[in-house]
């Protein structure tokens, strides 16, 4: 697994990595297909696999499943591969009011919990009220509003402000059973060791060494053709790669260095796919010096060689100064920035520091008021691809008189630390494959999502703690726009704020890392059939069939 997956799944909850085709296995009729008997193994990553399945908590056993909606399901599976073509899931259909303040959802029929109880709108209302009552559980960033049920299969969300632009967050929360969870005294600490969901799989066996999910034969959709999925935790990307190469695992969502040589060349059954999914770079804590100084951030942006940083992990260098991942969002780039890319200019980087009052000391590093321009980059030690990039940055920043230190931590520790602002900088932050251009900026720089240092940002948005009155006003204006032209005009201004104030420093476009073997099962998406990303998730699992 990689840190993008970790952050992405925390924000998106059960968005997982859903795609957008009308799959036969996604029909509302239940259990009509004949189930196979094969068990596949997924290589996941976990520092400490414990029997905790509460879908609203950060570090649980669901992490080893890539939070792929196998047990607890969302209303809609958001398509991050074919933007806009989202898959109805527990919601059969939905519609917004003309003012985009009311969302009416019609639920699927004949859905049951794995304990045999009927699923209804009451469960949905309860789940969303739980998020409102306990904000710490709201990892998906569901906006505040009222939720009600006018009929057993209808749910109505009512928001104070137009909220259609937040649709991915609204519909991605995991739904839990009211008849079980209403007796939970404190859901913020509840472990949920024996989860009851509506999903295509349920817990078969658990141990610290592996988690076995078995097929739900009473599933409301066509049941899976594979009988079970065994999730095995590994400590880092290298051990996951070894497991895949040696045939110990069939599927993973991990970065593989030099995948052509180290993995896919080993067997015609081995496949690796990392479609460009978003933008990443150096994410500063804007409440800590020296990265609080825009001159330092601009110097860094000018001084780095993005090709080298990206090449360290086989990625593509970021090009557009708007930060938007290209070519996917080329149409959303402001006219004034259509052809404007990042330029490496080390001399100008140093001139920028000098103009801001910094002077280079005898040690080769710039300083101001007796303080050296020095900061650390925090990331999990097991994420080898990030380590490779940061090592390159250490050398590049030294060349322009800035000292970068490496601060490694654990997978379980990084998100709580960055959420509370306990870091100088990090990498791997961008929290999701942006389903819209607006989402890209809303997730990473919306000042209205600011939390002071020490108070955790519940949805991991704006962890750099960007504050700007102009930007705050633009983010409030965007939902009020009624035409695509008006929305683009506001987006153009947001892009200008990003370019001029540089809340974080884009460096490369990242991919949704996925690897699989077709020796035992087939049906995975790939570049020739990119129906959605192949990171382990239930939408793909329902398409798999024994080879």
From TrEMBL:
<dbReference type="InterPro" id="IPR039424">
    <property type="entry name" value="SBP_5"/>
</dbReference>
<feature type="domain" description="Solute-binding protein family 5">
    <location>
        <begin position="87"/>
        <end position="443"/>
    </location>
</feature>
<dbReference type="InterPro" id="IPR000914">
    <property type="entry name" value="SBP_5_dom"/>
</dbReference>
<dbReference type="GO" id="GO:1904680">
    <property type="term" value="F:peptide transmembrane transporter activity"/>
</dbReference>
<feature type="signal peptide">
    <location>
        <begin position="1"/>
        <end position="24"/>
    </location>
</feature>
<dbReference type="Pfam" id="PF00496">
    <property type="entry name" value="SBP_bac_5"/>
</dbReference>
<protein>
    <submittedName>
        <fullName>Peptide/nickel transport system substrate-binding protein</fullName>
    </submittedName>
</protein>
<dbReference type="GO" id="GO:0042597">
    <property type="term" value="C:periplasmic space"/>
</dbReference>
<dbReference type="InterPro" id="IPR030678">
    <property type="entry name" value="Peptide/Ni-bd"/>
</dbReference>
<dbReference type="InterPro" id="IPR006311">
    <property type="entry name" value="TAT_signal"/>
</dbReference>
<dbReference type="GO" id="GO:0043190">
    <property type="term" value="C:ATP-binding cassette (ABC) transporter complex"/>
</dbReference>
<keyword id="KW-0732">Signal</keyword>
<dbReference type="GO" id="GO:0015833">
    <property type="term" value="P:peptide transport"/>
</dbReference>
